[in-house]
Amino acid sequence: MSDVQQPEVYWTTPTKHVPNSKLPVLVYRGVLPPDLTVESTEQALEPNNWVKGGVFHHFPTHHYHSNTHECYAAIKGHTTCVYGVGPLDDQSKGITFDMKAGDIAVHAAGVAHRNMESSEDYEYVGLYPKGAPKWTNAYGKESEDTTAKAEESRNVPIPDYDPIYGLDGPLPSLWRKAAGM
After folding, report:
1. pTM (2 decimals)?
2. According to the lineage, what is the superkingdom (predicted)?
3. Per-residue pLDDT reduced to its tens digit, 73-82
4. 32-47 confidence digits (pLDDT tens)
5. Residue 162 carries which DSSP code?
6. Helix (H, G, I), strand (E, B), or coil: what is residue 172?
7. Distances (CA, A) of 64 to 77, 138, 139
8. How many CB atoms lie within 10 A of CB 103?
């Protein structure tokens, strides 16, 4: 597996407003096909059981999905991502990293995320494990039941396939180890 790039690993912890996850955020650099399009990204990741849910641009709103894991595949421009905090949390506690076209970030159900700053042309494909339900959005606000959302997030199964490398990729083993499996 020497040709498999190991991802950057970032850890989040629960806050009063967002569940986050004990499963790490994984960032892979420059792993998408050189002809970056929505179609080439789909062709590269869908055989690994990660399917396109949509094509998106700068999304500055703190949010998380308690019912599915998600992969951001950057196909144009660049962005600064903030993970692990909601709008009511101390922003200095968030994890910040840059992404550019060709990179992907994979986060587990319950992990808060947003784009802080993006180039005007920033565009990404959102991909989800095959068979996952349509994502729901939660925004880390006082009125949301974080306990119930955390429980729902913990019950989302760990995918058997890494979005880039399939069965031989690092995601399933890293996440299973973090989950104590």
Report:
1. 0.95
2. Eukaryota
3. 999 999 999 9
4. 999 999 999 999 999 9
5. B
6. helix
7. 23, 5, 7
8. 24
